Each structure stands twice: as structure tokens, then as C-alpha cells.
């Protein structure tokens, strides 16, 4: 059996434990996850794990938050790089971003979306969609509203519904065209008038 190298306490951070847990979830799923497995992966003792986290649920929650925060950072970058007034281009870029993020987190969500783990997957999608919807409503939509008419009510909930629906759709139909995703988003948000200028490059 391979000897586990234990790092000095000062070198171990909460982030390292979270990353080790995330790696284990992707590699083996939640069913085989244990405090001992996480400690071995992070190169720490069980007592040091409990210094940072009370139980497995708490560290799993921290992993979800880490993944969601990465999504939000990507979205912030997209929002900051948008071309002012180019609604079609923004829709196009957002659709590309969403598909890329879904593909990149596929091993993580696949590990969650199995058996008893499905409840955690639902929580992950719910929290991710709520965070993203809130950010878009408070930033992108406000910018748009300063120069255009908002044609949807309940903005944040509309984005939430669209995001959760598109995640399910893209996972169920991975070959769905980029153009169709853009059209669905535009129709949901009542932005069809901007579609003629939208590109469909892969």
C-alpha cells in the first residue's frame, strides 16, 4: 500500500481540502467518499480535516460553492468584455460560454447525478442558476434597460427558468446546434428582433 505523506499543519489550507474532495467526487463519486479518503488525498490527518469541516456535508457544500464561484467569475468576464450595443453578439457569446461551462463541469455534475447523489446535483443546479440569474439581473439587464425596453416581467426568475431548462436540454441533447440555443434564449427573453445579426460559429 502506498504510504500517505502528511503535510505539516501550516501548509494545509481549507482550499486544499476542498480541492481534494472535488477531485474525489469527479474520480469516484460521492458514494465512496469518506473523511479518510479525503484526508489521504489531501495528505493530512483526519483530525486536521475536522479542524476545517464538521462533516462530509459541509465540505461537499464548500465544493459546490467553489464550482459555482468559478461559473460566476467566467460570467463576470463575459459581462465586462461585451461590446456596448451589440445585443446579438452578447447572446452569441453567452451561448458559447454556457455550453463550454457545461462541458467543462461535466465530470463533476455526472458524478453528482447518480443514485443517492442526485439530490446534491439538484441543489448544485439550483444554486448555480440562482447566483447567475441574480448577477445578470443586477448587472447586464440594468445596462440593457438604460437603452432598451425590457419586455419580460420577473426578470430574475425568467433567467432562472431559462438557465435550468437550457442545462437540462444541453445535457439531454449534446448535439443541439448553437443557433438553436441562441434562438431559444432570444425567444425566452423577447430579444428576437436582434437575431438577424447573430452568428452561429462553433
Automatic annotation (TrEMBL):
The keyword Secreted does not apply. One of its GO terms (molecular function) is DNA binding. The keyword DNA-binding applies. Gene3D superfamilies: Tetracycline Repressor, domain 2 (1.10.357.10). PROSITE patterns: HTH_TETR_2 (PS50977). Signal peptide: none annotated. Keywords: DNA-binding. It comes from the Bacteria. Pfam families: TetR_N. This is TetR/AcrR family transcriptional regulator.
Amino acid at each position: 500500500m502506498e504510504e500517505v505523506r502528511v503535510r505539516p499543519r501550516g501548509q494545509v489550507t481549507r482550499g486544499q481540502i476542498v480541492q481534494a474532495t472535488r477531485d474525489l467526487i469527479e474520480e469516484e463519486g460521492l458514494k465512496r467518499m469518506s473523511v479518510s479518503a479525503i484526508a489521504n488525498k489531501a495528505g493530512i490527518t483526519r483530525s486536521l480535516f475536522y479542524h476545517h469541516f464538521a462533516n462530509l456535508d459541509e465540505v461537499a457544500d464548500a465544493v459546490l460553492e467553489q464550482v459555482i464561484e468559478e461559473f460566476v467569475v467566467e460570467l463576470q468576464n463575459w459581462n465586462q468584455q461585451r461590446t456596448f450595443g451589440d445585443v446579438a453578439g452578447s447572446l452569441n457569446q453567452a451561448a458559447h460560454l454556457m455550453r463550454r461551462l457545461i462541458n467543462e463541469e461535466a465530470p463533476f455534475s455526472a458524478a453528482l447525478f447518480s443514485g443517492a447523489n442526485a439530490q446534491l446535483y439538484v441543489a448544485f443546479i439550483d444554486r448555480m442558476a440562482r447566483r447567475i440569474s441574480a448577477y445578470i439581473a443586477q448587472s447586464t439587464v440594468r445596462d440593457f434597460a438604460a437603452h432598451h425596453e425590457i419586455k419580460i416581467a420577473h426578470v430574475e426568475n425568467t433567467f432562472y427558468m431559462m438557465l435550468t431548462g437550457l442545462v437540462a436540454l444541453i445535457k439531454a441533447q449534446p448535439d443541439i446546434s448553437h443557433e438553436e440555443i441562441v434562438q431559444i434564449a432570444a425567444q425566452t427573453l423577447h430579444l428576437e428582433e436582434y437575431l438577424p445579426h447573430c452568428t452561429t460559429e462553433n
